[in-house]
Amino acid sequence: MKSKDFLSIKDIIPGEFINLIQTARDMKEHETPQLLMGKTAALIFEKPSLRTRVSFEVGIKQMGGTSIFLSNSEIGLGIREPVSDVAMVLDRLVDVVIARVYSHQSLIELSNNTSIPVINALSDIAHPCQALGDCLTIFEQKEQLEGLSVAFVGDGNNIAGSLALACAYSGMNFGIASPQKYQLNPKIWKEAQEIAQENNTNMQWSSNVKDIVSNADVVYTDVWVSMGDEDEKEERLSTFSSYQVNEKVLSFAKNDCLFMHDMPAHRGEEISINMLDHPNSVVYQQAENRLHAQKAVIRNIFESSF
Question: For the whole prediction, is pTM greater than 0.90?
Answer without folding.
Answer: yes
